[in-house]
Amino acid sequence: MQSKKTVIVIGAGPVGLAAAAHLMQQGLTPIVLERGDNAGHAMTQWAHVRVFTPWKYLIDAAVETLLKATDWQMPDAEGIPLSGEIVDQYLVPAATKTALAAHIRYGADVIAVTKTGHSKLSSHQRETADYTVQYRSADGSQHRLRADAVIDASGTWFTPNPIGLDGLPVPGEIENAAHITYGIPDVLGKHRHRYQGQRTLVVGGGHSAINAVLDLLKLEGIDSPSHVYWGLRSTNVQKLLGGGEQDALPARGALGLAAKDAIESGRLTLLTSMQVNSVSTSAKGLAVNLQHTREGDGPLAVDQIIVATGFSPDLSITGELRLSLDSTVEAPAALAPLIDPNLHSCGTVMPHGADVLSHPDGDFYVVGMKSYGRAPTFLMMTGYEQVRSIAAALAGDAEAANRLQLTLPETGVCNADYGDAAVACCAEPEQQTSCCG
């Protein structure tokens, strides 16, 4: 197999930088396009959140090799960092102090990837055509780059799921956006003013939602009066709260135990099997119209809503490519059966590489969180193995590409959760739920 010389990497997050480092190890030239002003831009949006995974599982080997040639100091291997600490102590040093620095372009928001001179319908000489990547700079100007291959490590952070069970915003959700936040706001920090003394509904059943709920309860103890409502689509609260002291990751287990204590003490109102039909403005604030809730239907009066219902991949930039994606999970077709959240926990997802992530348009790969589509079971370690294998494949080393080098801990090691999940790691699978996401 002939080596590919220039590879565009979309995104300078953990997996994107790892991809660039592995490409350089293979003698290839990466061009990293990052939409933000710094490496790990998306992670700075939830910098206040502590992940579940210790440092020893967060450092990619190829990136570490580059960092060791600088004055960088490895953090405590057993320490469990905040997202912002991962950015400041790992990603930014890698992007600024190593040879990676010369390969990264910031403020480059990718808007399209295509086969040069070919639409999706065009087949003539398609296999030999290289790729064109179009991106928008911060000043609004548009640019095009060509490359032999493309690795999309752009993640899913900027495409959060709405409140609606059907994947659509519920009526009134867009109109009342000023009172609705998606993801994990910094309740105790820079967003504190927004939630002080407010009645807040948190929608979602994953660890992102638990984080938000617990932070709101801490704020409630400082600034009253306020109240916290936690709306779950699931009815199985026990599975949601996880394995507690038996959890393979103590930080994740502690989170579940704290949430369980808050529920049992009556400090928050739990709404299970909840469906939101609409959001409107009333004299009492926001009126959230609930249906099928076990605790009773009808309008719920709140001031703020936090939506933590997961994220979905943005597939718009690849509309002119020929991709093989699973119709349900929206992951590469060969990967989807391995990560279906109805069947797998984090620790049971097999390590995989270039062969599983390939598409009809060769030498284009989606990696990292985005490669898992709507499945919330992604592990940072898995992403690092993905890009190691892909770099080897692009360099023409099929043997190295097919030699999987990752051994996952038996019970799974999950990163911070971004999904609407309802099963603790290694629990039996349940419809539309997942162990760690």
TrEMBL record:
It comes from the Bacteria. Keywords: Oxidoreductase. It holds the Pfam family Pyr_redox_3. Its EC number is 1.18.1.2. The keyword Nucleus does not apply. The keyword Oxidoreductase applies. Gene3D superfamilies: FAD/NAD(P)-binding domain. GO terms for molecular function: ferredoxin-NADP+ reductase activity; flavin adenine dinucleotide binding; monooxygenase activity. This is Ferredoxin--NADP reductase.
